[in-house]
Amino acid sequence: MTEPKRAIVLLSGGLDSATCLAIAREAGFDCYALSIAYGQRHTAELAAARRVAQSLGAREHRLAHVSLGEFGGSALTDSSIPVPIEGAVGGIPVTYVPARNTVMLSIALAWAEVLGAQDIYVGVNAVDYSGYPDCRPEFIAAFEAMANLATKAGTEGAHITIHAPLIQLSKAGIIQRGTALGVDYAQTVSCYQADDAGRACGLCDACRLRKAGFEAAGIPDPTPYQ
């Protein structure tokens, strides 16, 4: 019997990444979930990632540490910058973490090489999202090209693929897809300023997008709010 192919799945603990893990599992991959402690102001999402990895049957779940918080520059890593609660105001918001997805995908790429995995899943979205430049299809395509130039695996002909299965889905579409795959969204945390118990503020951009997504999908919102 041939062994199942391995995939690295970036798992933040939020709604999108949980759906992405379920999609990778449905595709027949042995899923190795990777969460990143990058210096975010709250760690409720990392606790959520552990729950999601277990409930969705990840073969392994690793937590890597990188100190993006040392540089600040984002409301998600610098406590002196307030998280906006007034809704979308145009432009790239202060919740953008400089180079976050580039760093996370690079760490995933390193683990993929060690495991002999040629597939990396990431739950970025370019429809119902906050306008981050590292969530666009152009970025994913560029990173995949780089990955195949920069790695031993890529130069030896083992093509590395970056999967972004949610990138063109609405938030409602993501929720419907995940619900059909058995994702328990009550386990996830999306809020930019969740409390220690994982309860959402209901006001930040992530909360607004999540809440609107459940409403549009016609599915009850299981999110605990503060």
Automatic annotation (TrEMBL):
<keyword id="KW-0862">Zinc</keyword>
<feature type="binding site">
    <location>
        <position position="204"/>
    </location>
    <ligand>
        <name>Zn(2+)</name>
    </ligand>
</feature>
<comment type="function">
    <text>Catalyzes the ATP-dependent conversion of 7-carboxy-7-deazaguanine (CDG) to 7-cyano-7-deazaguanine (preQ(0)).</text>
</comment>
<feature type="binding site">
    <location>
        <position position="201"/>
    </location>
    <ligand>
        <name>Zn(2+)</name>
    </ligand>
</feature>
<feature type="binding site">
    <location>
        <begin position="11"/>
        <end position="21"/>
    </location>
    <ligand>
        <name>ATP</name>
    </ligand>
</feature>
<feature type="binding site">
    <location>
        <position position="191"/>
    </location>
    <ligand>
        <name>Zn(2+)</name>
    </ligand>
</feature>
<keyword id="KW-0547">Nucleotide-binding</keyword>
<comment type="similarity">
    <text>Belongs to the QueC family.</text>
</comment>
<dbReference type="InterPro" id="IPR018317">
    <property type="entry name" value="QueC"/>
</dbReference>
<keyword id="KW-0479">Metal-binding</keyword>
<keyword id="KW-0067">ATP-binding</keyword>
<keyword id="KW-0436">Ligase</keyword>
<comment type="pathway">
    <text>Purine metabolism; 7-cyano-7-deazaguanine biosynthesis.</text>
</comment>
<dbReference type="InterPro" id="IPR014729">
    <property type="entry name" value="Rossmann-like_a/b/a_fold"/>
</dbReference>
<protein>
    <recommendedName>
        <fullName>7-cyano-7-deazaguanine synthase</fullName>
        <ecNumber>6.3.4.20</ecNumber>
    </recommendedName>
</protein>
<keyword id="KW-0671">Queuosine biosynthesis</keyword>
<feature type="binding site">
    <location>
        <position position="207"/>
    </location>
    <ligand>
        <name>Zn(2+)</name>
    </ligand>
</feature>
<dbReference type="Pfam" id="PF06508">
    <property type="entry name" value="QueC"/>
</dbReference>
